[in-house]
Amino acid sequence: MNRPGRRDAGAVVRSTRRAQGMTLAELGHRTGYSASQVSRYERGIAPLTDTTVLRRFAGALALPPQIFGLLPDEDARPKRAPIRAGTVTVNAPGPSVVPEPEWEDGDDPVRRRELLTGAAGLAAAGAIGVQHPARASRPSDPAGGIENLLYGHGLADAEPVPLAQLRTATSRARALFQAARYDQLSAELPNLIATATATREDADTDERLATDALLADTYIVASGFMVKLNDDHLAWATADRAAQAAATSGDMLTLADAQRSVATVMRRTGRLDRARALLIQAADQIAPSRTAAAEQVSMYGTLLQVASYTAAVDGDRGLAGELITAAKTAAMRLGRDANHRHTAFGPTNVALYQVSIAQVLGDNGTAIAHAKSVNPAVIPTAERRGRYWIDVARAWHQWGKPEACYRSLLAAERAAPGEVRYRPPVRRMTADLLRVDRRGTLPGLRAFAARVGVRT
C-alpha cells in the first residue's frame, strides 16, 4: 500500500481523528491549535507542510512520522503506542491510518450493545397487543430485534391492525424515545415495525398513504434509537426504509423528517457535505409561507438547526452561524417551546443547539454561556434534557474542569437515566474522570461509572 505524501496530510489527519472518535476541539487541545485551525488544516485551506506541525499532529494521533513522509525520530524504537479505544486508553501497536469501521462517537456498537443489559424480552405484548415469538432477542442486545426484523425474521407472523390503533402505537413509540425510555422502546419497537408493515400491505387505497406515513415514522424512531446505540449500520438501514416509506406517503413533513434521519447518519459516517446539502435542500422544500402551520415551521427550524450542527462538525463556523440564526428566526416565529411533529422545537431547543455547536467547535466558554441562558426545567422532553446536560459536561470536560463535568453528568442522569446509559461520550468522560480523580474528590464517581458501564 502506498503511503500518503505531505500533500495528503490534511486528509490523513481528518480520517484518523474521526476513526479515533476525536473532535476537532480535542485534537486542537492536544496540538495547541484552535478547532477552526485544525479544520482548515484538514480541508487543505491552510497548507499542512511544516515538519514541526506535522510531527505535532503525528504525536497527537499516535501515528508514525513516516505516514507524512517524514523521517522517523532519531530515538524511535519499537514500542507500543497508546491509542484511543472507546472510552479508555490501551496499549496496542500503532493504529492504521483509517481503521474500519469508524463511528462518530468512537465506540464499537457491537461492544456497546453487549454492555447494555436489562432490556425486556421482545415477546411482550407491547403497545399494540400482538405477540411476536420471532422477535425474541437477547436482553443484552437491545438492537437485536431490529436487526432480525430487517432481515425478514418475523414479518410474516405479524397481523394488521386498525389504522387508529397503529397511529396510537406509533405515537407511543415516539413518546418512549423522547422520554429516553430506551429499554422499553427496544422491547416494543420490532413488534411495531412488523405490525405497521403488515397493516400497510393490507390497507385499501384510501388508507395506504396514511399507513405509509406511519411506517415511515416507526423507522424514523428506529433510526434515532440505533444512533443512540452508536450502531450506524442499522441506523443507515432504518433511515433508508423511513425515506422510502415517506416518499410514497405524500406527506412532505414526514419525508423531511426521514431525510433528517438519513442526513444524521451521513454526518456520523463522515459524509458531511452530503448531509449538509440534504438538510438544506429538505428545509428549502418545506420553507413555510406566512400562513404555514406550526408543524411546518417546527420541522423547518429543526432541519436548519441540524444543518447548523453538521456545519459545525465540519468546522464551518460561518455557515453554522448563518443556519442557527435562521433556525432562531423560525423559533421566534413559533413563539414558544412546543413539540409539534415530535420535534421539541422552539426557542429553548435552538439554545440547546447553540450549546452543542459551540462545544463541537471548541468554544467551551461560549457553550457554557449559552447553557446558562437555558432553564432546564422548560426543556420539553427528557431526551433533550439529558442531551443538554451531556453537552454541558462535554464543554466542561474539554475545558479541563472535572468537578463541573461530573456535576453535569449527574444532572444528566437525574434528567434522563437512559440517555446517560446509552451515550458513548458519557462513558469516555467517565473513564477520563476516573483517571484524574486519584484522590477521590468526586464522591460517588465509581458507583456512577458502574451504572453507565465503565469498569473501575
Describe it.
With 456 residues, this protein is an all-alpha fold. Among the domains are: 87 residues, lambda repressor-like DNA-binding domains (434 Repressor (Amino-terminal Domain)); 164 residues, no CATH class. The chain is globular, with a radius of gyration of 23 Å. A two-stranded antiparallel ribbon has the order 1-2. Strand 1 and strand 2 form a beta hairpin. Helix 10 runs antiparallel to helix 11, helix 11 packs antiparallel against helix 12 and helix 18 runs antiparallel to helix 20. The chain is built from 21 helices and two strands. The two termini are 40 Å apart. The N terminus is likely disordered.
Our count of helices gives 21
DSSP summary, beta strand count: 2
In round numbers, the mean pLDDT is 83
Q: Evaluate the radius of gyration.
A: 23 Å
The arrangement of helices and strands along the chain is HHHHEEHHHHHHHHHHHHHHHHH
Give the spatial strand order of the biggest sheet: 1-2
